[in-house]
Specification:
By secondary structure, this protein is of the alpha/beta class. Helices cover 35% and strands 27% of the residues. α1 crosses α13.
């Protein structure tokens, strides 16, 4: 069984090196052979120029194709897997076109695992662990009001005036500013057209408590079912969102104003221009540490009193192992690849595993990857 790893961008390398170092049969595919050789050439010479025809000729039944390429490649590569009887893995969100492949993959006994990086990925694992903990607590009651919060952000370890730095092209961050979101606030659906319309403050229960700016992103609502909430549970708040340094809203005020006005092809062109400018002005310097903060929290209240409240909190930063972002994205993905090849994951299209044994195993590795991971019991003591 061969792992066909496609794409050697910055967020791919630690997981790829882990798989090669563990002795797995890995073929590396990248549009630039030189960049791939720089990344893993000290470990392997099985490096090929990425080309769909060449890849198709190489993939065999039982192999797994890993897409760390831009998102528009995921579905074509997954469809290739269907034709060849191979498995598929990516760290990205499951697009509707990917979800549409579920029945065919399931019928063929193929595992198409996605959403197993940092966010999405580690946040899912923490959510599953919290829900299992809550269910076992003896405090579950349909009359409880539940608040679920999941915030994650990549931020500079050493804050700058712009309150943000970029590990790779800023275009994705800029495009996300144009995206609407759905969440639940005060027992009702909250729809927000732009992130800056719903920015609030969040105090993270780090060893030294720290306050961040947060906002909902994407559509949080499908994850209520994914995380195993009972249909009869009363949800007061449910939000999956982004975390930024305090002062981000003010520092980006002019960016928000301009992004709001951009439309059509001219607007897209301007976004690319802004992206190039920001990359020149606010990219991480060589060796400069990044930082990732994640908080996933579940609180249950009954008659206005808190009866259960726990939060997973993670703080990680770049060190001699490289950037925090790269290892937190790619190493969970590499573990899911091993799980897929071992038959530990379900057939069909699925997100990060929810099996308790796998969740525990993956989170144990996350504790080694991050400098701080803690499950905070807010009612203890």
């Amino acid at each position: 069984m061969t792992i066909h790893w496609c794409g050697t961008g910055l967020s791919a390398i630690p997981g790829l090196r882990r798989l090669i170092g563990a002795g797995h049969e890995v073929t590396v595919w990248n549009r630039s052979i030189g960049k791939a050789q720089d990344a893993v050439g000290d470990l392997t010479q099985r490096i090929q120029a990425f080309d769909m025809d060449a890849l198709t000729a190489e993939v065999q039944a039982g192999d797994i194709v890993v897409s760390m390429l831009p998102g528009d490649w995921h579905v074509p590569l997954a469809e290739l897997c269907l034709t060849k009887g191979a498995h598929f893995a990516s760290s990205s969100y499951i697009a509707p076109e990917m979800r549409a492949l579920h029945a065919r993959a399931e019928a063929a006994g193929l595992t198409f695992v996605n959403e197993i990086g940092l966010d999405p990925g580690i946040d899912h694992l923490m959510a599953h662990a919290l829900i299992a903990d809550y269910r076992a607590s003896g405090e579950v009651d349909p009359e409880n009001d539940l608040t679920f919060l999941s915030y994650c952000g990549g931020i500079p370890k050493h804050p700058n005036a712009f309150r943000y730095k970029f590990s790779w092209s800023p275009l994705g961050v800029l495009k996300a500013l144009r995206s609407p979101s759905r969440s639940i606030r005060d027992h009702a659906e909250l729809r927000v057209d732009r992130p800056w319309d719903a920015i609030s403050s969040y105090s993270a229960p780090l060893p030294a408590p720290e306050t961040f700016e947060v906002y909902p992103n994407r559509d949080s609502l499908p994850f209520i079912e994914d995380y195993g909430f009972d249909p009869n549970w009363r949800i007061k708040e449910f939000v999956r969102g982004t975390l930024r340094l305090n002062g981000w809203t003010e520092a980006w005020a002019d960016v928000f104003k301009e992004v709001e006005t951009l439309q059509g092809p001219e607007g897209d062109a301007r976004l690319r221009e802004m992206s190039d400018t920001f990359w020149g002005e606010h990219a991480y310097d060589e060796g400069e540490p990044d930082r990732v903060v994640m908080c996933v929290s579940l609180k249950a209240e009954r008659d206005g009193a808190t009866v259960w409240h726990k939060t997973y909190v993670m703080d990680a930063w770049g060190d001699e192992r490289g950037t925090a972002m790269a290892r937190l994205v790619s190493i969970p993905l590499s573990m899911a690849i091993e799980s897929a090849l071992a038959g530990e994951l379900p057939a069909g299209v699925s997100p990060a595993p929810h099996d308790p044994a796998l969740v525990d195993r993956y989170l144990a590795e996350v504790r080694r990857l991050a400098q701080h991971v803690e499950l905070v019991d807010h009612l203890a003591g």
